[in-house]
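Aim 2 progress. For Energy-coupling factor ABC transporter ATP-binding protein, the working sequence is reproduced below.
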Amino acid sequence: MALLLETEDLHFSYHGFEPCLSGVTMAVNAGERIGLVGHNGAGKSTLLHLLVGLNKPSSGRIAAFGRDYQSEEDFRLLRRRVGLVFQDPDDQLFCPTVAEDVAFGPLNLGYSIQDAMCIVDETLASLGLSEFRERITHKLSGGQKRLVSLATVLAMKPDILLLDEPTNALDEKTTRSLIDILVNLPQAMVIVSHDRAFREEVVTRTILMEGGQIR
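Predicted C-alpha coordinates for this construct:
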Protein backbone atom coordinates (compact mmCIF):
# COMPACT_ATOMS: atom_id res chain seq x y z
CA MET A 1 0.00 0.00 0.00
CA ALA A 2 1.18 3.51 -0.79
CA LEU A 3 2.15 5.66 2.19
CA LEU A 4 0.03 8.83 2.29
CA LEU A 5 0.77 10.45 5.65
CA GLU A 6 3.14 9.86 8.54
CA THR A 7 4.21 11.42 11.81
CA GLU A 8 7.50 10.94 13.57
CA ASP A 9 8.08 11.58 17.29
CA LEU A 10 5.39 14.28 17.66
CA HIS A 11 5.33 16.15 20.97
CA PHE A 12 2.69 18.66 22.06
CA SER A 13 1.32 20.24 25.23
CA TYR A 14 -1.26 22.92 25.88
CA HIS A 15 0.08 25.98 27.68
CA GLY A 16 0.30 25.34 31.41
CA PHE A 17 -0.47 21.62 31.16
CA GLU A 18 1.49 18.40 31.10
CA PRO A 19 2.37 17.06 27.62
CA CYS A 20 -0.50 15.20 25.97
CA LEU A 21 1.59 13.88 23.05
CA SER A 22 4.99 12.45 23.93
CA GLY A 23 6.46 11.00 20.77
CA VAL A 24 3.61 9.95 18.48
CA THR A 25 4.73 8.03 15.41
CA MET A 26 2.17 6.65 12.98
CA ALA A 27 1.57 6.01 9.28
CA VAL A 28 -1.56 6.14 7.12
CA ASN A 29 -1.57 4.13 3.92
CA ALA A 30 -3.89 4.33 0.92
CA GLY A 31 -7.13 2.46 1.46
CA GLU A 32 -6.78 2.18 5.23
CA ARG A 33 -9.50 3.16 7.68
CA ILE A 34 -7.65 3.43 10.98
CA GLY A 35 -9.55 3.41 14.26
CA LEU A 36 -7.83 5.57 16.89
CA VAL A 37 -8.85 4.62 20.44
CA GLY A 38 -7.85 5.58 23.98
CA HIS A 39 -9.32 7.03 27.13
CA ASN A 40 -10.68 10.59 27.29
CA GLY A 41 -7.79 13.02 27.39
CA ALA A 42 -5.37 10.63 25.69
CA GLY A 43 -4.71 13.20 22.95
CA LYS A 44 -6.68 11.67 20.08
CA SER A 45 -8.47 14.85 19.00
CA THR A 46 -5.29 16.83 19.55
CA LEU A 47 -3.45 14.53 17.15
CA LEU A 48 -6.08 15.08 14.45
CA HIS A 49 -5.75 18.84 14.91
CA LEU A 50 -1.97 18.63 14.56
CA LEU A 51 -2.30 16.63 11.35
CA VAL A 52 -4.03 19.56 9.63
CA GLY A 53 -2.01 22.30 11.29
CA LEU A 54 -4.64 23.66 13.68
CA ASN A 55 -2.07 23.20 16.44
CA LYS A 56 1.71 23.11 16.02
CA PRO A 57 3.83 20.40 17.64
CA SER A 58 6.65 21.47 19.91
CA SER A 59 8.83 18.95 18.08
CA GLY A 60 8.52 16.11 15.63
CA ARG A 61 7.70 15.67 11.98
CA ILE A 62 4.53 15.58 9.88
CA ALA A 63 4.84 14.41 6.29
CA ALA A 64 2.29 13.64 3.60
CA PHE A 65 2.29 12.97 -0.12
CA GLY A 66 6.06 12.97 -0.30
CA ARG A 67 6.93 16.17 1.60
CA ASP A 68 7.13 17.63 5.10
CA TYR A 69 4.73 20.24 6.48
CA GLN A 70 5.77 22.87 9.02
CA SER A 71 4.47 26.38 8.32
CA GLU A 72 0.88 27.61 8.11
CA GLU A 73 1.41 28.12 4.39
CA ASP A 74 2.37 24.45 4.12
CA PHE A 75 -0.70 23.33 6.03
CA ARG A 76 -3.04 25.46 3.94
CA LEU A 77 -1.96 23.30 1.02
CA LEU A 78 -2.28 20.10 3.05
CA ARG A 79 -5.83 20.97 4.14
CA ARG A 80 -6.85 20.75 0.49
CA ARG A 81 -6.03 17.03 0.60
CA VAL A 82 -6.70 16.10 4.24
CA GLY A 83 -10.17 16.92 5.55
CA LEU A 84 -11.10 17.03 9.24
CA VAL A 85 -14.68 16.45 10.39
CA PHE A 86 -14.88 18.00 13.86
CA GLN A 87 -16.46 16.29 16.84
CA ASP A 88 -18.92 19.17 17.22
CA PRO A 89 -20.60 20.04 13.90
CA ASP A 90 -21.31 23.56 15.14
CA ASP A 91 -17.55 24.13 14.87
CA GLN A 92 -17.75 23.31 11.15
CA LEU A 93 -21.04 24.82 9.97
CA PHE A 94 -21.36 28.59 9.88
CA CYS A 95 -23.24 29.54 6.70
CA PRO A 96 -27.01 30.22 6.58
CA THR A 97 -27.92 27.22 4.40
CA VAL A 98 -26.63 23.72 3.79
CA ALA A 99 -25.80 24.52 0.16
CA GLU A 100 -23.70 27.52 1.19
CA ASP A 101 -21.83 25.50 3.80
CA VAL A 102 -21.01 22.73 1.32
CA ALA A 103 -20.04 25.25 -1.38
CA PHE A 104 -17.69 27.18 0.91
CA GLY A 105 -14.70 24.87 0.43
CA PRO A 106 -14.89 24.54 -3.37
CA LEU A 107 -15.34 28.32 -3.74
CA ASN A 108 -12.21 28.87 -1.65
CA LEU A 109 -10.36 26.43 -3.90
CA GLY A 110 -11.16 28.71 -6.83
CA TYR A 111 -14.13 26.95 -8.43
CA SER A 112 -16.70 29.15 -10.14
CA ILE A 113 -20.08 29.53 -8.46
CA GLN A 114 -21.62 27.32 -11.15
CA ASP A 115 -19.03 24.57 -10.71
CA ALA A 116 -19.20 24.82 -6.91
CA MET A 117 -22.96 24.36 -7.00
CA CYS A 118 -22.53 21.30 -9.21
CA ILE A 119 -20.18 19.90 -6.56
CA VAL A 120 -22.78 20.72 -3.88
CA ASP A 121 -25.46 18.80 -5.78
CA GLU A 122 -23.18 15.82 -6.45
CA THR A 123 -21.94 15.64 -2.87
CA LEU A 124 -25.34 15.92 -1.25
CA ALA A 125 -26.78 13.35 -3.67
CA SER A 126 -23.97 10.89 -2.89
CA LEU A 127 -24.83 11.15 0.82
CA GLY A 128 -28.60 11.02 0.34
CA LEU A 129 -28.91 14.61 1.57
CA SER A 130 -30.32 16.36 -1.51
CA GLU A 131 -33.51 17.26 0.34
CA PHE A 132 -31.48 19.33 2.80
CA ARG A 133 -29.93 21.57 0.14
CA GLU A 134 -31.86 24.73 1.01
CA ARG A 135 -32.41 23.97 4.69
CA ILE A 136 -31.32 26.44 7.36
CA THR A 137 -28.23 24.82 8.85
CA HIS A 138 -28.75 25.78 12.49
CA LYS A 139 -32.27 24.28 12.43
CA LEU A 140 -31.03 20.79 11.55
CA SER A 141 -30.91 18.01 14.12
CA GLY A 142 -27.57 16.99 15.62
CA GLY A 143 -27.37 13.94 13.40
CA GLN A 144 -28.28 15.91 10.27
CA LYS A 145 -25.61 18.49 11.09
CA ARG A 146 -23.04 15.74 11.45
CA LEU A 147 -23.80 14.37 7.98
CA VAL A 148 -23.72 17.87 6.48
CA SER A 149 -20.33 18.41 8.16
CA LEU A 150 -19.09 15.32 6.34
CA ALA A 151 -20.50 16.73 3.10
CA THR A 152 -18.57 19.99 3.55
CA VAL A 153 -15.34 18.01 3.78
CA LEU A 154 -16.10 15.59 0.94
CA ALA A 155 -16.89 18.55 -1.33
CA MET A 156 -13.18 19.40 -1.11
CA LYS A 157 -12.39 15.99 -2.65
CA PRO A 158 -9.71 15.10 -0.06
CA ASP A 159 -7.40 12.09 -0.20
CA ILE A 160 -7.61 11.49 3.57
CA LEU A 161 -10.51 11.94 5.99
CA LEU A 162 -10.03 12.58 9.70
CA LEU A 163 -13.22 11.94 11.69
CA ASP A 164 -13.59 12.82 15.37
CA GLU A 165 -16.32 10.76 17.11
CA PRO A 166 -18.51 10.65 13.97
CA THR A 167 -21.37 8.72 15.61
CA ASN A 168 -21.96 11.21 18.44
CA ALA A 169 -25.63 12.25 18.58
CA LEU A 170 -26.60 9.83 15.81
CA ASP A 171 -29.62 7.57 16.10
CA GLU A 172 -29.42 3.97 14.94
CA LYS A 173 -30.76 4.68 11.44
CA THR A 174 -28.36 7.57 10.80
CA THR A 175 -25.44 5.57 12.18
CA ARG A 176 -26.29 2.81 9.72
CA SER A 177 -26.34 5.34 6.88
CA LEU A 178 -22.97 6.71 7.97
CA ILE A 179 -21.44 3.24 8.10
CA ASP A 180 -22.67 2.48 4.58
CA ILE A 181 -21.27 5.80 3.35
CA LEU A 182 -17.84 5.43 4.92
CA VAL A 183 -17.13 1.85 3.87
CA ASN A 184 -17.85 2.81 0.24
CA LEU A 185 -15.67 5.92 0.14
CA PRO A 186 -12.23 5.62 -1.50
CA GLN A 187 -10.43 7.90 0.96
CA ALA A 188 -8.03 6.70 3.61
CA MET A 189 -9.34 7.57 7.07
CA VAL A 190 -8.30 8.10 10.65
CA ILE A 191 -11.36 7.74 12.87
CA VAL A 192 -11.49 8.61 16.57
CA SER A 193 -14.41 6.66 18.02
CA HIS A 194 -15.47 5.10 21.31
CA ASP A 195 -18.23 3.22 19.45
CA ARG A 196 -16.96 -0.35 19.30
CA ALA A 197 -19.81 -1.67 17.11
CA PHE A 198 -19.24 1.15 14.62
CA ARG A 199 -15.49 0.51 14.53
CA GLU A 200 -15.99 -3.20 13.98
CA GLU A 201 -17.89 -2.46 10.76
CA VAL A 202 -15.78 0.40 9.44
CA VAL A 203 -12.11 0.32 10.41
CA THR A 204 -9.48 -1.90 8.84
CA ARG A 205 -7.09 -1.67 11.80
CA THR A 206 -7.10 -0.10 15.26
CA ILE A 207 -4.33 1.72 17.11
CA LEU A 208 -4.27 2.70 20.79
CA MET A 209 -3.17 6.05 22.19
CA GLU A 210 -1.89 5.76 25.72
CA GLY A 211 0.57 7.79 27.75
CA GLY A 212 0.92 10.30 24.93
CA GLN A 213 2.10 7.64 22.51
CA ILE A 214 0.70 5.14 20.05
CA ARG A 215 0.95 1.59 21.34
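The first helix runs from residue 44 to 51. This observation will guide construct design in the next reporting period.
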